[in-house]
Amino acid sequence: MRRALSSSEIELLEKHPHTCRLYMVVDKPAVLLSAQVNMSISTGQTIVNFANEEPDPTTLYRTWEKLSSGNTVKVGTSRGGQQVGTVTLSAAEPSQIVVASNSLAWANGRYLSVGTSWYARVSALGKDVNGNFNGGAMRIPYSNATGDYTKVRPGMTLYLGSTAGGRDLGRARVKSITASLITVAMNSDVQWAHGAYITIVESVDLWSIYPRINPYNGKWYKDEALYSSNVNQKQTVWLPPVPIMGPPGVAFLNESNEATLKFIGAESYTLCSNGIKTSSTTSVGDVSCVIGTGWDFAGGTVVSGSANQLGTEASPNIVKWTTAGRRLVSLNVKNNKPSGNEKSTTGYRPIFILNRPGMVGGVNEPYVNFNIETLEGDFDSGGWTATVRVFGDADINEFPDNAMIVIFAEEWWGGGPYGETPQAATLQSIGGYPGRENVKLVAWIMEETTHVGFAADGGRYVEFRVQTIDGLLKSIAGYIMSMEDRVYAYGTDTNTSCTEWWHVFKLQVNRAIQYVTAFHTTLHQMCDVYIANDNSRVWAWDFGDGSLYRQIDDYAASAIAARLLSTKQSQLYIEKDIQTAPANWKPNYVVLALDKNKHLREKLELPRPHRSRVRRVDLEGLLWNGSVATPIIARAPSVAPNQDGVDESLSGYVADSRSELQEVAGYTLAARNNPWTRLSFQFQGNFSLLDIAPQGYFTLSLTANDTKRGIVWTNKKLIPRRITMSYDARAQTMLVDATLDAAAEGTSGVSGDYAPPSTVIYDTPGVPVNVVGWNNVVYAGTVDGVYRLVAGVSDWYKITPKVEPFDLDDDLTVFEVIIDPHIKTLGVNTDVLINADQGVFRGHYDLTTMTYEWTKWKLEDPPNSWSLNPAPTLDECIIKLLQADYTNVNTFYCAVGCTRTSGDPEIEPLNYYWLLKIVDNSGVLTLTWLPLSYNYPLLTGRVSPYDMKVDTENGSRIYITGELSEYYPYPAGGYVVVSGGMNSVLRYKIDDGGAFDPIGLLKVAVPWYRSGGARNGNHVIFYGPLNVSGVYRGAVYSTDGGATLSLLNTGVLSADYIPRLLVPDAITESAYRIFFSKISMGGYGLGEWATFKSWPNDWGAATKKVLPGQFSARCSPAQHVKNSNIVLASLVSGTFTAQGRIDYTAAINLIINADTDANANCLTFNSGLPMPTEETIRCLAIDWGK
Amino acid sequence: MSLTQYMIGTSLGNLVNVATHVGMHLPRGSFRLFPVTYTGFDGRTVGDGRPVVTWRFDVLTQSELNALRAYLISGSTYLISAPVYIKTRMDNGSFATFAALMHWPDDIDSKRIPASASGVYQDVEIVFTALQQVIV
User: Which residues in chain B have Cβ-Cβ distances shorter than 8 Å to A735?
Assistant: First the structure.
């Protein structure tokens, strides 16, 4: 009860005798449409089913998602052919394409293709060319229909059967319908077939809504909807409203053949955050929920109120029906802003107008021939369960599988037989949603047991176990989802604005929950959901794997110590536990002050533990104001703990203030040590008003003489936690027992100890380290093989044993480790390539055996491009700069260099380098060599490469920096560009003292995007010690493949800063992180880093943050960037000496820094790495999932 | 004058004296005002629920039994219970009319005297529950 009982209700409770008669209704929704699937293969069809789709050869991804409207679809009699013709694509879906009008002769097995991206074959609906089941169709043409398709609403259930009315082929959720076409939600298991029987019933069920990501562009779809770019339509800014319309209604026709029901929708609400700015200057005012298209009373006559008003408890809509039957009533509510784009939601509830048993007979009479064996609600389990024994007809038509049942009551109070003038009893129900007080249970059949007694007097009946809506939520899995807070509704900056499904404007506790209920379920259409209106801000949240119930309940428990609770009427409450909630969240009323003489029966059992359970509670939380996250800790009872019990630590709480957290800590301690819990009560009369939600207080007073222990309670607050109802059908009584907890009486805690550590070190992490932006996997190449670390799961362990193909005796010195970005199993990068002293190897990680299988690349000797004598051999060459092509599978590049002495001791060894392209097709290598000569095809102007990158548009441009190696001394800082891939020349260098004047070796970076839009392979950045026109700048960029260069920074970069590594952001692909070393701090000093976006912003002026000491930029770091976090790995070194070598005087560790605050959250992993010696560890690779 | 005031019917309008069905084999009725009782905190006994009545027939012939069972027929099917109207004796000695649910005894076959060729039953108890008094 969300209010105190009225005096008249209390008076009723105390009247005897009470009687109660229960009835049961089984929801058997009407059939709105019966039809047959009309999907034969015919000439000119525009919806074409396909099967036998060829997956991406490397990733095994589905490929239809590569398609887009306007593509030309070739239809042929052979793979890739177009003998039948071509047609323009309109849309592509998992097993169907929609094409423009055509006159093609479609036939089963025809070959379909789009360019070289997609290959599939025409199929009969539901079957591939081999006759195997191929589900997933979403557009279902139909014919032979009976019924009225215009009555079908989104969310209703479609059954597919092999016979009329059958359900054996599956079910799907209807999304829309026309006179000839049904569109359903994504599905896989529905066995669509031409001619199969469609039955659409007038019911909106609970579904888990499937979110899909397009692996090719990274875009999420929720229920196949893309995220809107229109600020007024953005789904995660303007959350849809929540209709509240009560549970299903039930009423008997009276002697005048009239039945009335009340309808109240005034508690409908919206969780739109108020004051949303739709541009930098325009703000929308407060948003509220108002009536939309209103109520649809399904043929009922409005006696009082209006279909266009929500209806309040004081002034409800009263609707009358004059014939028996099931109806589906709906309520549409909407947000009142933004104008023209108001989001709306429609809720549906069945109502049952019934004939009294024995009057007319037939389907519109409730069941009376049943008994309730158990009926129990439990706060801990979150809902109600019942066992219903049915003695009469209980076949599949009477009790369909998964059917909803409604048990309702007629309850009388007082009255009775007193001679010729019996006193009339009062017929009334108490408790539950206003206007639905007679509904005692709304539940769904979860399982059944059929009893067949063999003896002559053996019983024959069926028992159904039914469960409230929480049972459905527990039986349906949710989908993993993440969300992050965003400050702005408008704009395109992915760090601050809502541009993706997982960006939530003002992510608050309540909005996070509604994100799940609104976008991942159909809850708001089929039951009431009350979400605790806690608008504390949340920085981010991940909803992990599990049932829909677990996702919401776990989140609620962690974030605000709340529970997901179902009332017996199957209304959902996400409600803070009032035992631990802050004071302003506790009810300020008492439902009923229990009178021990009038309200209790038989006995009272008051167990009390003698020792406290918990001596101290530490509660960790986070304050997030939209830009700054502040960790806070509260402790109770105070600094020192109590004497008895154990310590308890809780984390993840989302608080609005320190004082709130302290309150919660104090109340949590009190609740844990509450001496009066699980108190057993038995109530006089009909206390079926009790429920586990919404939580409310009862009170009881005891005097010293009432118990042997002299317990004195004065209005002791009590909370029902477990309720058992016993119905006696013969006596027509409902007796209620309950377990109640006394309200915990505690005081606020204090602020806990917290000192931000500079480095949090976990030698052996005990739990997974969930750092946003990487896969927890790091590889280290050492002088003794490759080591792998799975943070939080395993320490470093060696993955290159001394077995074939490696040398059985010699150590393996590894110079480079890279991750093949194209080879994945179940989304996991499985392949690494290593460049080692024994050659180049590919390692494939077998997820089943959790071991690596290694193969050695069989590289050939390089061509004798320079006519060397003797001809160069691979054995005398070095291989470096090994890297993968991100846009072409199986493609890799490296530089191969041959060093020859000139014979002149005054001249350094001569270097001859080739750019080597390797295509690794399942171990069969195709090698292409390009001599690295500036004057190519002349072979003069040899280049010794220093850095190299492959463009991210299509891999046709390879950018190389380096120095010219045929002159002495080598002109430092010269660089060249290979344009046009392997078919063009090195065509540019700047080492001639021009405007661009490198004073040292430069590096090169290729962005994903320059600033949004499509990738452009001509975009490139060169950085390092670089003067431009005599001014130190540090970096230049080009948008034409290096032909012309521009300043990356408008200001003058301090000459202290040498950019050491520039990393394009993998998520915000217009952003970069750049890492510097400060040479002014005595050679190579501390590293710093900065973020800049979308040139020509002044990157030099970007705020720089000092990295922890471990991240000396001299330390061969490997760094990667993903969204707003950096993942930075570096070897911990000792001091850098004047002699210019790294002296590993300390233990060699690996540091992962996973926070934009570079001074925090450094995690050290060292267990398992080889003992430190100089240059023990040569390289690192972080698996960042790209 | 009627032999008894016990009456039965499917509606208030067709209440008939039980003697029309069972002749001289009239029932003895017991009346339980509150089928559920319990003790309150202060020691009072509290009763709830609808009254329960039991008609006990010392002897019934097969035809008499069938006449009573006719109140449980729905179409061509015998029910185990059905709504009826009865007039019965209350625990204050007066008679009153009630709507009730009539329950056919589960053990009726065990009440049959084996030696009776045409069927004679002893100690037959017919229970009526959910009594609601009506003013005739």
Answer: 36, 48
Q: Which residue in the set B39, B52, B94 is minimally distant from A602, CB to CB? A: B39
SS (H, E, C) A944-957: EEEEEEECCCCCCC
For an interface test with A, give the residue of B33, B42, B48, B109 to mutate (most A CBs within 10 A). B48
Nearest-angstrom CA–CA distance, A578 and A721: 12
pLDDT in tens, B3-52: 679 999 999 999 999 999 999 899 999 999 999 999 999 999 999 999 99
- DSSP for A470-521 reads HHHHHHSB---EEEEEESBSSSS-TTTB--STTEEET-BHHHHHHHHHHHSB
Nearest to A354 by CA among A387, A318, A326: A326
**What is the pLDDT confidence band of residue A1126, given thresholds at 50, 70 and 90?**
very low
Question: Which residues of chain A does B51 touch, with a Cβ-Cβ cutoff of 8 Å?
Answer: 416-417
Computed from CA positions of residues A1154, A1158, A1161, A1165, in that sequence, does the dihedral angle turn out positive or negative? Answer: positive
User: Sheet containing A1104-1106: which strands, arranged edge to edge?
Assistant: A1057-1064, A1071-1078, A1087-1093, A1104-1106
Count of helices and strands (H, E) across chain A: 7, 78
Q: For residue A872, is the peptide bond before it cis, meaning its omega torsion is within 30 degrees of 0?
A: no
Cβ–Cβ under 8 Å, residues A333 and A296: no
Of A54-63, A384-393, A486-495, B82-91, the range with the lowest mean pLDDT is A54-63
pLDDT surpasses 80 at A1143: no
Q: H or E element: which one contains A447?
A: strand A439-452
pLDDT tens per residue, range A64-119: 999 999 999 999 999 999 999 999 999 999 899 999 999 999 999 999 999 988 99
Token pair 């960006």 is found at A503
**Helix, strand, coil content of chain A in percent (nearest 5):** 5, 40, 50
CB contact under 8 Å between A602 and B90, yes or no, is no
Rounded Cα gap, residues A77 and A43, in angstroms: 15
Find residues 29-68 of chain B whose CB sits inside 8 Å of chain A.
33-36, 38-42, 44, 46-52
The stretch A902-928 carries a mean pLDDT of 81
Q: How many CA atoms lie within 13 A of A1087 on its CB side?
A: 31
The H or E element spanning position A988 is strand A986-989
* Residue whose token pair is 């392949």: A831
> For A1083-1098, how does the pLDDT look when each residue is reduced to its tens digit (9 = 90+)?
444 455 555 554 555 5
d(CA A275, CA A286): 6
What Å distances lie between residue A428 and A312, A413, A689, A947, A956, CA to CA? 20, 8, 12, 84, 80
Q: What is the DSSP letter of A589?
A: S
**In terms of Cα–Cα distance, which of A568, A483, A533 is closest to A227?**
A483
Q: ∠ CA(B36), CA(A359), CA(A466), 5° rounding?
A: 55
Task: Estimate the crossing angle of helix A548-560 against helix A509-519, to 10 degrees.
Answer: 180
**Of the listed ranges A225-229, A938-942, A996-1000, the one predicted with least confidence:** A996-1000
Cα distances (angstroms) measured from residue A882 to each of A59, A273, A840, A898, A946: 21, 50, 9, 16, 12
Is the confidence at residue A154, as pLDDT, over 70?
yes
| The model's pTM | 0.69
Could you tell me which chain B residue has the CA closest to the CA of A682? B40
Q: What are phi and psi of A876, to 5 degrees?
A: -95, 0
User: Which of A776, A714, A680 is CA-nearest to residue A1154?
Assistant: A776
Interface confidence: ipTM more than 0.95: no
Query: Which band of pLDDT confidence, cut at 50, 70 and 90, is reported for residue A1106?
Result: low
Tell me, letter by letter, the H, E, C secondary structure of A20-52: EEEEEEECCCCEEEEEEECCCCCCCCCEEEEEC
Q: Which residue has the tokens 């830009």?
A: A627
